[in-house]
Amino acid sequence: MSTELNEADMAAVARGQKLFVESFNEKATVASAAPGRVNLIGEHTDYNDGFVFPLALEKSTYLVGKALPEGQECEVVSEAMEGVVAKFMAEDSPASESVPGWARYVKGMTAIYARNGYKVVPFRAAIVSDVPLGSGLSSSAALEMATAVLIEALSDLQVDASKRALMGQSCEHEFAKVPCGIMDQLISSRGESGRALLIDCRSLEATAVPLDDPEAVIVVANSNVQHKLSGSEYPTRRRQCADAAKAMGAKHHEQKISHLRDCTLEMLESVKDELDADTVRRATHGISEDVRTLKAKSCLENGDLAGAGKLMHESHVSLRDLFEVSTKEIDALVEIAMGVEGVYGSRITGGGFGGCTVTLVKKSAVDELIKAIEEEYPRASGGLKATTFATKAGKGARVVTHLLA
Ligand code: GAF
């Protein structure tokens, strides 16, 4: 799991080491890193046991750390929260809220590892991150997975990458109170350089699809409208999907239906009158998004960028009109992108209610796309500026020890 460092890794680890020395008057010995993610297609399908198609970003969250003697409290600092040292016992119960919000992800991971029977060595750690916070690019999953890898390195533990992701998901549920699916933690834990992963969220099997077309670029545009999932909307969407699957399960009991993944639009039609209109719209998205995601994977495997882009935009329309998780700023970004010659497709990415778009675009049209966003987005959004970056698929969670040796 230990990998070669690139420039971004080196710069971030150096920042982390500096913060560690300033905070604790000694040097860290180990560094871990885990990426944020961008999802190409397959949105709000993970908790329906369906399919998602994300890639790891080249931007990561890093922890530099050092083991402490048995019985001591963990001590954690963050570049984003200068001067605050969060302290807690590694095996403390999740219910305790005695640490600041950002540190709960770290404390949550130590508690969940301990609860799963792993012997967690206490540690000091400094956190730095290149993943934009609150932008729908999974900064919290990156922090969970980077914490997990640091715990494993310092405590000499071998943990399967999917099990690590599942423990991160529990952390999110219990500590951040977000009833998320498995996509973000899984891609952060298992992401592969140069490849997107088609993940079956029921079996957790992942198929790597190379993103090696030199003519195609993935551009992320941040609306700079903060995205927050801990309110009521995300849990409500989850419940509506579950309600629809339950109704179809009751009607078609011979078919073993537990989630929307098992349903078809015909089955939904057969229970339409038993459900409210919102629930029917949510389920229509959930069922059709799985179909689009599998088709988009085939398109990319076959070099059909136009086909993949068309499906991405259809996904956006569905998330906007049926699942209702978009915002006017995100819709503006998508519309601007779709108006640029050479753009294959553009859509909201991640949980929604703000955050980012993902656009698949011809290499020769990237500058035009960025110019259009710079010129037109402030007008459409009432003065906001978007932040854009092109990305390839980066590495999953990893140890970056040798720099600190
Ligand atoms: C958020 C959640 F954390 C994911 O599990 C997923 O449901 C996503 O929203 C929507 O696809 O990122």
UniProtKB/TrEMBL annotation:
Which Gene3D superfamilies did the record assign? Answer: 3.30.230.10, GHMP kinase, C-terminal domain (3.30.70.890)
The record places domain Galactokinase N-terminal at: 19-65
Sorted alphabetically, the keyword list is: ATP-binding, Carbohydrate metabolism, Cytoplasm, Kinase, Magnesium, Metal-binding, Nucleotide-binding, Transferase
Any Pfam family hit:
GHMP_kinases_N
Q: Which GO terms describe its molecular function?
A: ATP binding; galactokinase activity; metal ion binding
- Where is the GHMP kinase C-terminal domain positioned along the sequence? 298-378
Q: Does the keyword DNA-binding apply?
A: no
GO cellular component terms listed in the entry, alphabetical order: cytosol
One GO BP annotation of this record = galactose metabolic process
Which residues are in the GHMP kinase N-terminal domain? Answer: 105-191
Q: Does the keyword Protein biosynthesis apply?
A: no
Q: Which domain of life is it from?
A: Eukaryota
User: Per the similarity annotation, which family is this?
Assistant: Belongs to the GHMP kinase family. GalK subfamily.
Q: What is this protein called?
A: Galactokinase
